Amino acid sequence: MMKKNRVEISEVGPRDGLQNIKTIMSLPDKKAWVSALADAGLSEIEVGSFVPPSLLPQLADTAELVAHALTIDGLTVAVLVPNYKGAENAVRAGVHKITIPLSASESHSLANVNRTHKQMLEEVEQIAALLRKLPEGRRPHFEGSISTAFGCTIEGAVPEKKILELAMALMTAGCDEVGLSDTTGYANPANVQKLVKAVKTEVGDKNLTGLHLHNTRGLGLANALAALDVGITTLDASQGGLGGCPFAPGASGNIVTEDLVYMLDAMGIETGISLEKLIVSRHMLHTYLPDEPLYGFIADAGLPKDYRS
Ligand code: ZN
Fold first, then answer.
1. What is the number of alpha carbons within 13 Å of residue 221 lying toward its C-beta?
2. Which member of 47, 166, 214, 241 has the lowest number of beta carbons within 10 Å of its beta carbon?
3. Spatial contact of 228 and 7, defined as CB atoms under 8 Å apart
4. Considering the entire predicted model, what is its pTM?
5. Helix %, strand %, coil % for the chain, to 5?
């Protein structure tokens, strides 16, 4: 299959990255970082998550950060919500995109959000109903993202049949599209292609466009490339692989935005992102969080001689 010549990168560092570190980043620093990322050409940024501040103090200022991000021209402002209450707050804040994670593994779902699949799907239905009430132009895009889709640390491999069932259930419950998340870093290029093809067949080609990959075992970029070959057009990534992986010391969190942009750029696949500006925002991030390790190769190694982007 032909790769599309343009790939959208959704920057999730301000949410997935920050959520996994202890040092609280100040609101002014977050604002400056988000602005720098947008200036580098990232057209979609997941800026936070509407969860109770007591659970995740790091993301307590999501509404304020959303308000700032909404002032940036052309930026799609995305957030994660765990439930209906979160979606209400997201709507109030005026976001463009809402993603709700649904864990493929029921044990993981119970451990994480204390809800069964059935309860989560009811929540999705309620959110969809809430969104339907909004005027068309102010209705956020609603994605249901199946987390632990490639395996779970509690249950191990999740049967493909289960993922297909959940993908269909999310669409039926009113999501605009489904996504797949390799929350645990268990994916490999072969099972990425197999699952993406199967889900696309189940819910329709245009209803699965994005993948959320982690680089826990070093296969992030290989998985990304494999995904593009089977029609994925949006990839989540985080600057500097921020957040790392609590279970795998030395491993980055999400795939590293800089390295992903470099790979695509070097292959002649358009991202609309300036690598030079992205390195600038990486330096900013390092200044704001001097004690947090940043991952990736291209920022340290530099561009190859005679490299033309
Ligand atoms: Zn993640």
1. 16
2. 166
3. yes
4. 0.96
5. 45, 15, 40
CA of 234 to the centre of ligand 1 (A): 15
Distance of CA 71 from the midpoint of ligand 1 (Å): 26
251 neighbors 216 (Cβ within 8 angstroms): yes
Question: pLDDT, tens digit, for every residue of 187-246?
Answer: 999 999 999 999 999 999 999 999 999 999 999 999 999 999 999 999 999 999 998 877
Distances (CA, A) of 143 to 58, 148, 201, 292: 23, 16, 18, 30
154 pLDDT band (50/70/90 cuts)?
Answer: confident
Rg (CA), the chain: 18
Kindly report, residue by residue over 118-149, the tens digit of the pLDDT: 999 999 999 999 999 999 889 999 999 999 99
> Could you give all domains of the chain from N- to C-terminal order, each with its CATH number?
8-301 (3.20.20.70)
How many A from CA of 302 to the centre of ligand 1?
A: 27
CA–centroid distance, 254 to ligand 1, in Å, is 6
- Any idea which residues carry the catalytic annotation? 245
User: Which residues, at least 6 apart from 115, have a Cβ–Cβ distance to it below 8 Å?
Assistant: 83, 109, 123
User: Count of alpha carbons within 13 Å of 96, Cβ hemisphere only?
Assistant: 15
How high is the pLDDT of residue 4? Answer: 61
